[in-house]
Design brief:
Blueprint lengths: L13 E7 L10 H18 E8 L3 E8 L4 H17 L11 E5 L2 H17 L14 H6 L7
Antiparallel strand pairs: 1-3, 1-4, 2-3
Helix pairs in contact: 1-2
């Protein structure tokens, strides 16, 4: 059986990360929850992570993230823990227990995952064009606009 690389701590690796809301509840259809998540994502990025691309969907998120120390489990765990406390007021679990992180080593795979992230709202039928979705890095990534979410 092949070794599973998911959630490995690999310094220097860019990771494609997916986190799901418990029972796929659409808590990010509420703007204040989105803002709380992005404030915590910004704090994580400022501490020790390079954030390349992101999208926050109504019931999950995708990121391409490079923690300086490679400890993807610690950083995504903190993001989920702190954002859950802010969103729920400390009254309950909002995230599924685990998350999926895949290290990205080739330029081809990195581009593929960034494109996947930015196309996600269109595939889900939330908007007709990716640049129309608010909770994404699309405009900053492709149009070099200042990222208002971060």
């Amino acid at each position: 059986m092949a070794k599973k690389w998911s959630n490995e701590n690999l310094p220097g690796a860019l990771h494609f990360v997916t986190g799901n809301v418990l029972d796929r509840t659409k808590i990010f259809a509420i703007e204040r929850n989105c803002v709380a998540f992005f404030e915590e994502l910004q704090a994580l990025r400022k501490r020790d992570c390079k954030l390349v691309a992101f999208v926050l969907m109504p019931d999950h998120f995708h990121l391409t993230l490079n923690p300086r120390d490679g400890n993807i489990q610690k950083h995504v765990g903190e993001l989920k823990e702190i954002s859950a406390k802010r969103i729920s007021g400390g009254r309950g679990q909002i995230w599924q227990q685990s998350f999926h992180a895949l290290p990205l080593w080739s330029e081809y795979v990195i581009k593929q995952k960034v494109n996947y992230i930015h196309a996600n709202p269109v595939r889900a039928g939330l908007v007709p064009r990716a640049e129309e979705y608010r909770w994404t890095s699309f405009r900053a990534f492709y149009f070099e606009e200042k990222e208002p979410l971060l």
